Amino acid sequence: MGAMMGKPCHDGHMPLYCMVSSLLIWCAMDTKQLIDFWQRSGLEDIKTAEALFAAKRYTACLFFCHLFIEKMLKACYVAEIGDTPPLWHNLVRLAQKASLELTEKQWDLLAEVNYFNIAGRYEDYQRDFYRISTRAYTKKYLVKSLELHAWLLEKLFRRV
Predict the structure, then answer these.
(1) Measured in whole angstroms, how far is the alpha carbon of residue 159 from the centre of its chain?
(2) Are the C-beta atoms of residues 92 and 107 closer than 8 Å to each other?
(3) Which residues are within 8 A (CB) of 114 and not within 5 positions of it... i.e. 6 or more apart?
């Protein structure tokens, strides 16, 4: 199998198929539906992050912090641009493209949380990530991520 094939997705299809079918579904949605999709999906990821924290699965919790912020940024992108968001995972880049006016602390948080996406996915980063992902470290970033999510949600409601 080629590099793009990999393991089957959740529905048994290959990743490239899933990516293309997701894009087709997103392209069929209007702006309001897209915003709602990203917002609801992010809210589910918050529940998952909180459950992972309670289960002491700290690295996975931090990965989901990245995920729920990413999805909120994608909702903001759709509200600003009126189109399907890019398939990027870089939070700083998404916030820039969504024309968000963040504080310096918020930009710093996005840059820090970006690391959780890489460290949560790739084995060569996971050993160091696991070591630093203590309960206190994870709680700090879970709280900060939830605060940023709430702020983004408020900004989103003002735009829509």
Answers:
(1) 20
(2) yes
(3) 66, 89, 90, 91, 92
Q: Are 80 and 98 in contact (CB under 8 A)?
A: yes
Domains in the chain: ranges and CATH:
30-159 (1.20.120.330)
Which tokens sit at 56?
A: 């002491």
pLDDT digits 0-9 by tens, 109-155: 999 999 998 766 767 777 788 899 999 999 999 999 999 999 999 99
CA end-to-end distance (rounded Å), the chain: 44
CA–CA dist 123, 129 (Å, integer): 10
Tokens 């992050």 — which residue? 49
Whether 119 contacts 125, CB under 8 Å = yes
What percent of the chain is predicted at pLDDT more than 90?
61
The secondary element (H helix, E strand) that includes residue 5 is: none
Residue whose C-alpha is closest to residue 92's, from 60, 70, 63, 116 = 70
